[in-house]
Amino acid sequence: MKIEVNFRAMQRTKFTFARLKYNSGDWDTDQRMPSNILNSLLEYTTIPLEEEEKIVELGSMDLFKYPFCYMSGHKLVQFNQQEAANFKAYVKNGGFVFVDDCNHDIDGLFARSFETQMSNLFGASALKKIPNNHPLYSSFFKFEKGPPTTSFELNGWGDDLVHDYLKAITINNRIGVLYSNKDYGCEWDYDFRNKRFLAEDNTKFGVNIILYAMGVNS
Fold first, then answer.
1. How many Å apart are CA 26 and CA 120, to the nearest integer?
2. Integer Cα distance of 76 and 63 in angstroms
C-alpha cells in the first residue's frame, strides 16, 4: 500500500510532541522531558502547541498524523515488519524523527541495534555525521560549536567517547532522522519550574531541533 502524506500542511497546525512506542526495548524514558521542551517552546516562540505529549505506536497508521516524532531507549531496537515499513515510509514522506540514545546501556546495545535498523531500511551509509555549521544549529538559537555537550554522554555509540557531532539521515536535502548519542532526553528530564536554577537553559537546543523539524525558518 502506497502512503502519501502532506506533512507541510500539518506543520501549519498545532505542534504535537509525539513519542514513538516500539515493541522492543524500552521506549518510555525521560518522562518529564517533553513537558519541559513544550514549556520552552511556549516561552521562546509563538508556534501553537498541544499542551501534552502524544504516545504513538510505530506500527500504527496514527504515526502519519504527526510531522515530528521522538524516539529513545536504553535497550534493544528490533522493529517488527510493520514498524519497519512505517518508519521508512514516514521518513521518506517528509517526517522527522529525533532519536536519542539514553546512554545507560551495556556495550552500546541501543546504538548498535538502532544503527542496524537504519542500515536495513536506508542503506549502510545512510547515517552520516552532520557538520557543525548545519542549519540545525542556527534554526533559532545559535550553537557555533555544533551540538551542546551533556553530562550523560560517556557511553554514546558504545565507544566511551564524547562526540562533537550528531548523525543524520538526509532525505531531499532535509534531515529525516536526527540521531544523538548525547542523551539529551535525560539532560532535559526535569520539572520545567526548576529551569530557573540553571545558569543557562539547557533545553534551547531542543527548541532548535523542533523548529528545524517543523521548517519554521527554512
1. 21
2. 21
Contact criterion met (CB below 8 Å) for 30 and 206: no
pLDDT of residue 194: 87
- How do residues 18-72 score in pLDDT, each as one tens digit? 999 999 989 999 999 999 999 999 999 999 999 999 999 999 999 999 999 999 9
CA distance 193 to 37: 12
**Beta carbons of 176 and 97 less than 8 angstroms apart:** yes
What is the SS3 assignment for 32?
Answer: coil
- Give the whole-angstrom CA distance, residue 203 versus residue 1: 39
SS3 of residue 152 by DSSP: coil
- pLDDT higher than threshold 70 for residue 74: yes
How many residues are recorded in the chain? 218
Beta bridge partners of 56: 20
pTM for the whole thing?
0.91
List Cβ neighbours of 73 (8 Å cut-off, separation of 6 or more): 22, 25, 26, 27, 29, 101, 102, 110
CA gap 189, 10 in Å, rounded? 27
Residue 10 has pLDDT above 60, yes or no: no
Tally DSSP H helices, then E strands, for the chain: 6, 7
Strand partners, 57: 21
Q: Is 106 exposed, middle or buried, given 0-12, 13-18 or 19+ CB atoms closer than 10 A?
A: exposed
CA 101/CA 159 separation, integer angstroms:
13
Angle at 55 between CA 76 and CA 35, to 5 degrees: 105
